[in-house]
Amino acid sequence: MAAHELGAAAYAIRAVQAAAPDAEREAAGCEECRWQRDQLPAQIRGLVLDDQRLRNELCWHVFDC
User: Fold this and answer.
1) Per-residue CA distances from 62 to 14, 43, 50 (Å)
2) Domain ranges of the chain
């Protein structure tokens, strides 16, 4: 399952982007990304951020925030 945990996060960011007006999509996606990161427990934060960097290209670059 570890290989799939970013998928849900990436899809949530894309859903927020899709729901936002065109001019606000990028900002809305970044806001959602930052919110998700703020929810991470300190114990796993570094691991998740490393994984986001490594697999950002596969996840439509939604973790560029």
Assistant:
1) 7, 23, 14
2) 2-59
